[in-house]
């Protein structure tokens, strides 16, 4: 996960306060639009497209590590493990 400076995070957080997707489709739309905006303001090249793919992949991995794994661990404690 990129560790941005506090002022960068605060600025981006403020901008994102108006964006509240309520459905999986809306969430997908917002993520897609962010990628499109990034590409539009960059040189369209393999490097840029690869950077977007990398950012999406890393965000997915970080979400899994920080959110999904703790949830799954709590459910194992609550309901017992499959194995």
The helix content is over 70%
Number of separate structural domains: 1
Nearest-angstrom radius of gyration? 17 Å
Determine the number of helices (DSSP H or I, runs of at least 4 residues).
3
Q: H/E element string?
A: HHH
First-to-last CA distance? 31 Å
Largest sheet descriptor: none
| Arithmetic mean of pLDDT | 95
Strands, total number: 0
Category from helices, strands and their pairing: mainly alpha
What is the overall shape? extended
Uncertain stretches of 5 or more adjacent residues? none
User: How much of the residues is beta strand, in percent?
Assistant: under 5%
Question: What do these coordinates show?
Answer:
The protein has helices spanning 6-16, 24-40, 46-79. The protein is mainly α. The protein has one domain. The chain is extended and about 50 Å long. The model has no long low-confidence stretch (mean pLDDT 95).
Q: What labels would you give this structure?
A:
83 residues; mainly alpha
């Amino acid at each position: 996960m990129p560790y941005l400076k506090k002022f960068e995070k605060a600025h981006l957080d403020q901008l994102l306060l108006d964006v509240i997707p309520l459905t999986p489709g809306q969430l997908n739309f917002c993520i897609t639009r962010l990628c499109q905006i990034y590409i539009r303001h960059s040189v369209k090249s393999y490097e840029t497209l690869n950077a977007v793919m990398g950012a999406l992949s890393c965000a997915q991995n970080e979400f899994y590590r920080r959110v999904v794994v703790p949830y799954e661990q709590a459910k194992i404690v609550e309901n017992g493990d499959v194995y």
